[in-house]
Amino acid sequence: MDSSAALESSHLEPKLILIFSGKRKSGKDYVTDVIVDRLGEDVCGVVRLSAPLKQAYAQEHGLDAEQLASSGPYKELYRADMISWGEARRLRDPGFFCRLATRGAHQPVWVVSDARRMSDLRWFWANFPQQTRCVRVQSREETRKRRGWIYTPGVDDAESECGLDTGVDFHWIIMNEADAPSLDDQLRPILALAAEAAGR
Ligand SMILES: Nc1ncnc2c1ncn2[C@@H]1O[C@H](COP(=O)(O)OP(=O)(O)O)[C@@H](O)[C@H]1O
Ligand SMILES: C[C@@](O)(CCOP(=O)(O)OP(=O)(O)O)CC(=O)O
């Protein structure tokens, strides 16, 4: 889709798009929730690329969409199959989930909480070249394990988890660890840029 179509579907062109990626249980949702909390929901909206995917997958398979969207163990039962189901859809139309996920976004700052693939980044770079910034959230394996991560072949060694491990020049890398500087300290430059972009 070209940028005029993207504009039409989102009504207002965003001033800044912060695209977060990171391994399972690195804390992408946790960190992006902090950003929304600090900036306020009138300034900042979370875009989850997996939201329309999970919704459509739940509908097609008669599953509980709310549980699939939560951070509990339910989604792990279906993750591998959701990945291949979503990849088949992306193969036909790489921007499919990006378009759906951003459709209702109206705030000046978008926080995309779950980029996993170069094709997703390419869609944002193509449609919003000036506004797009990439952020990586990192946590040690032992920390992710404490948060419930269990290595799963076919998931943790596949594109869904590794597609952005290399080849992306991240604007910021956030260490989500108890012994790292506080999240507020690490997020300060991002929050400042977002506030400036939103004119606050
Ligand atoms: N800095 C943190 N302090 C406390 N709990 C955290 C922190 N980061 C993540 N968590 C917890 O770890 C779990 C996984 O985090 P989540 O944000 O869902 O990871 P991801 O979205 O990367 O899979 C959640 O229960 C979350 O509340
Ligand atoms: C099928 C998925 O969209 C599921 C993503 O679910 P979440 O974004 O909830 O995952 P984590 O927060 O990393 O635990 C993955 C994909 O490859 O599209």
What keywords describe this structure?
sterol metabolism; globular; 200 residues; P-loop_NTPase; kinase; alpha/beta; binds adenosine-5'-diphosphate
Strands, count: 5
Strand content bin = 5-15%
Radius of gyration: 16 Å
- Give unreliable regions as ranges: 6-10
Strand order of the largest sheet: 2-3-1-4-5
What is the CATH architecture descriptor? 3-Layer(aba) Sandwich
Helix content: 40-55%
User: Into how many domains do the coordinates divide?
Assistant: 1
Instruction: Please summarize the sheet with the most strands.
Output: 5 strands, parallel
Structural class: alpha/beta
Count of alpha/pi helices: 10
- The secondary-structure element order is HEHEHHHHEHEHHEH
Instruction: Write the CATH fold name.
Output: Rossmann fold
What does this structure look like?
This protein has 200 residues and is of the alpha/beta class. The chain has a single domain (3-163), classed as 3-Layer(aba) Sandwich (Rossmann fold). It has ten helices and five strands. Strands 2-3-1-4-5 form a five-stranded parallel beta sheet. The radius of gyration is 16 Å and the shape is globular. The relative contact order is 0.23. The ligand C[C@@](O)(CCOP(=O)(O)OP(=O)(O)O)CC(=O)O binds at residues 24, 28-29, 50, 53, 75, 79, 82-83, 86, 114, 116, 160. Adenosine-5'-diphosphate binds at residues 22, 24-30, 71, 147, 176.
